[in-house]
Amino acid sequence: MATSMPPRTPLPPLRVPGQPTGGPPPKKRRANESISTWRLTDRIGYFLMWAAGLLVVAIGLGIVGFMAIKGLQYLRPVLLTSHPQADLDQSKSGGFFDPLVGTVLLTVIGIAIATPIAVATAVWIVEYGRPTWLARVIDSGIEIIAGTPDIVLALFGLVLFQQGIFGWMSFRAEDGAVFGRSFLTAGAMMSLIALPMVFAATREGLQAVPAHVREASYGLGKTRAATIRRVLLPSVKSNISTGAALGMGRIAGDTAIVVVLLGASLRLDPEGGIFGILQGTGGTLTSYVYNNSPAGEGNAAQKAYAAAFVLLLIVIGLNFAVDAIARRGARANGIETSRLGGS
Amino acid sequence: MLDRLRQPWTDRRAELTLGALACSVLLVIAFMIAFIAVKAWPSFNANGLSWFSAKGNVDQQLDAMVNSGANPTKADYQLGAWPLIYATLLTTVLSAACALVFSLLASIFIVEFAPERLRRLIVPIVRLLAAVPSVVYGLIGILVIVPFIGGSLISPGRKESVQYVIQLSGTSLIVAVVVLTVMITPIMIAMTVDGLHSIPRSWKEGAVALGVNRWRAMWTVTVRAARPAIMAGVVLATARAIGEAIMISMVAGSKGFAPNPADGITFLFEPLRTMAATIVEDSESINAPAMQASLYAMALLLLAGGFVLSIGSWLAKQPLKKYGVRS
C-alpha cells in the first residue's frame, strides 16, 4: 500500500544542461541535502524529533545522575551491613542489610523456579510443539502472564498460598489458617514475572539454531532427547543466561508482590535457620524504598535515596551482564543479536 | 499415531515431561482466573452493576469495610468504584497518548536521523529507562516533581478555589501521567524501533528517489508501513500502565477522587487513586472479608483488562508476520 503512494511535494522543473533557463545558474547540490528547502510542517516535525531524541537522553542521564548524586551523598558502607531499626530519627534507623539479603534471596528463588519451567516450555514449543493448537495456546498463555499486572499476581499468590496444602511454604496460625506470606510464596509468584523473559530469550535462541545442526545430530544416531540435551541446550546457553539476567532485573525491581506477599517488613524472620527465613516474612530494597519514601510510614528520604541507589546499581549491573552475555554468545555462535530487542 | 509410538521411549518420556511443564503455565492461568473470580464474587453479588457506578465517597466506603468485622452484612459490601476506574482509565489513556507521540518521534530519530555517536548513547539509555524499577520512578516523582508542582506551579489562588472540595498538595494527576509516560515510553520505543527496522529499506529509498525529502519519506512510507508494530507497542505499554500500582500510589495523592475536566487547568493538579494503587494501599486490611472481596473485584477487572490487551497486541502484530517479524 505504501509503495504506491505518490510523492506529496511537486517535482522541481527538469533542467536540461546547456539550455537557457532564465534566472541564476543552478547551484550544484544534492537534492534534499538542506532542510531549509523543506516544507514548514516537515521542518517542525524534524525539529520535534530531535527534541524528543535529546529529551530521552536528558531524562536518562538526569535520572542516573540525580540518583548517583543523592545516593553517594547518603550512602555509607555501614548502611549495607547494619540491620534496620524502627525509628523515626534517620540517624538511628539503621541500615538496610536485611532488605539487601531479601532482594538477593527473592531473586534467586524466583529465577530458580522460573528458569526450568521457561526453558522446558520453550524447548517443547520449538522442538515438539504438537498438537499445534496446544502449542499456540501455551504461547498465548505466556503472553497473558507477561501482560498480567504484578499486583494481580500478588493477590493471586495470596489466595493460592493460603490454601491448606501450601501450609509448609509459610506458617500457620493456631486456628489452622495459613498465613500465605513468605519468601517461598513471594518467590513463586516472582517466577511468573521472570518466566516470559526467559521463555522469549530461549525460544529465540532455539529458533536461530540452524536445522542442519539438528539433522547432523540425528544423522549420528542421537535421539531427539539426546539432541536437546547435548546439542541444543549448550548452544542456547547464552540466550538462557540473557533471559535469566533480564528476569532477575525485573524481580529485583518489583515492589507490589513484596508489599502484598512478603509482608514488606523491615527485618527477616530470625527463627528456625535458613528454612525458617524462607518461610518467614521479610522485605527487599524496593519495599524499603517504598516504606521510607514520604508515601510510606518511615518518611526517611536519605535512607530511601541510598537504598534506591543500591537497587539501581543492581538493576544496571544485571543489564550490563545481559550485554556481556549476549556479546559472548554472539561471538561463540556467530549469530548477530538484536541490540534493542528483548522486552 | 503409530509413528509416534515407535519413537524411543526416552524421547517419548522427554516429550511428555516437557509438555507437562509447558501445560503447567495454562494451569496457573486457569487457577488465577478461578481463584480471583471466586474471591471477587461477594462484592459483585452485593452491588450488582452499581459496582461500576459512582455512589458517594469511595474512601468512606472502603474505610467502612475495614471496620465491618469478620461477618459483614450485605450493606457492608457497598461500593461504587467509578472514581477508581475513572482514575485508572484517565492515567492510562493520557500517558499512553503522550508516550505514543514521544516514542514515535524518538524512534524515528534513533532509526533514521541520529548521528552514529548519539545513537550509541541513546540505545543503552532506552534500555536503562526500561529497567529502572517503578519504585525509583515513584521516589523521584514524590521527592522532586511533587514538591516542584505543589510549590511553584499551583498558585495559592488555585488552591483556595477548590479548597472545600479537595486539597491540592502537588500529588496529582499530572505527576502520575508524566512519570508514567517516562516509564512506558521505553517499551514503546523498543517495539517501534524493531518495527521501523523491519520495513524494507528499498521502500523508503524509492520515495526519496522520487524527490520526497527524508523526513517525509520516513513519515509517509516507513512509519505508515510499521503501524502494526507501533500499535502493538502501544498495547503492550498500556498493559504496563494499567497495572502500575506502586508509582501511582506514591505520586498521585491516593484520594478516591475523580478529577473533573470542567475545572480547567486545575483538573491536572487534582489527586486521584487508581485501582492498582488501591489494592497496594489497602492490602494491609485484606483480612476483613468485605475489603478482601472488593480488592479481588478490582484485581479481576485489571486481569480482564490485561487479558483484552494481550489479545489486542496479538491481533495488532498479525499484519507484521508478512514482513517476517517475530515475537
UniProtKB/TrEMBL annotation, chain A:
Where is the stretch described as Disordered? Answer: 1-34
Per UniProt, subcellular location reads as: Membrane
* Keyword Transmembrane included in the entry's annotation: yes
Instruction: Pinpoint the ABC transmembrane type-1 domain residues.
Output: 100-322
Statement: the UniProt record of this protein carries the keyword Kinase: no
InterPro entries attached here? MetI-like, MetI-like_sf
Q: Protein name, please?
A: Unannotated protein
| Species of origin | freshwater metagenome
UniProtKB/TrEMBL annotation, chain B:
**What Pfam families does this protein's entry cite?**
BPD_transp_1 (PF00528)
For this UniProt entry, what is the primary localization, expressed as one broad class? membrane
Q: Name one GO molecular function term.
A: phosphate transmembrane transporter activity
For this protein, the parts annotated as crossing the membrane are 20-41, 84-113, 125-150, 170-193, 229-252, 295-316
Localization? Cell membrane
What PROSITE patterns does the database record attribute to this sequence? ABC_TM1
- How is this protein situated with respect to the membrane? Multi-pass membrane protein
Q: Does the keyword Transport apply?
A: yes
Q: Which GO terms describe its cellular component?
A: plasma membrane
SUPFAM superfamilies (UniProt xref): MetI-like (SSF161098)
Keywords, sorted A to Z:
Cell membrane, Membrane, Phosphate transport, Transmembrane, Transmembrane helix, Transport
What are the BP-aspect GO terms?
A: phosphate ion transport
Give the ABC transmembrane type-1 domain ranges: 85-313
The name this protein goes by in its record: Unannotated protein
Q: Which organism is it from?
A: freshwater metagenome
Gene3D superfamilies the record matches:
MetI-like
Does the keyword rRNA-binding feature in the UniProt annotation?
no
Family statement drawn from the similarity comment of this UniProt entry:
Belongs to the binding-protein-dependent transport system permease family. CysTW subfamily.
